[in-house]
Write the structure tokens for this entry.
Amino acid sequence: DSGVTQTPKHLITATGQRVTLRCSPRSGDLSVYWYQQSLDQGLQFLIQYYNGEERAKGNILERFSAQQFPDLHSELNLSSLELGDSALYFCASSVGWTTDTDTQYFGPGTRLTVL
Amino acid sequence: AQTVTQSQPEMSVQEAETVTLSCTYDTSESDYYLFWYKQPPSRQMILVIRQEAYKQQNATENRFSVNFQKAAKSFSLKISDSQLGDAAMYFCAYLWNDMRFGAGTRLTVKP
């Protein structure tokens, strides 16, 4: 158990819908990262937040957005869902910034299925 | 752009034997971090080992060790005394500004 929690574990929804994925980092970690793992694209970095502010952005679609709240939990919002958005979404956390001596600890993931 | 290449889509090892998984990466940076993650059938990502590029000494974690060759931009993972529970997908990852992953190597452990 990495200490990172993600809810829900599974999510099934229809195209065009909007969903919210939630992540709670390990106690003491200030950074939260979101990743998408799909069969065709592999594991891709989406976005990072550090202490409530966006720190780095990867291959995140405009239909997707994220935020980190004062209690440091984070939410990833996916809207206008398409079939291709079906994937495993991971959250990871670390103490500081990616350029520091930090290890990212991954949560168990949320499996999103878009029908 | 930083890219990570795992040239072995699949590997197989006999229980109790040793196996080495390969990883190469491309970067112009001098200070960065490298990781091996394990993804078992449960799909959770589990950190196996990490290596700081500024350290010349190869990292070791129990049965897991790395051969880090900075000039060659190579970062291989050696698993000694392989166990059935080691069967999983293994991802090599490079971290500088953000994390980049290789495509993964599926490791099968034969009893």
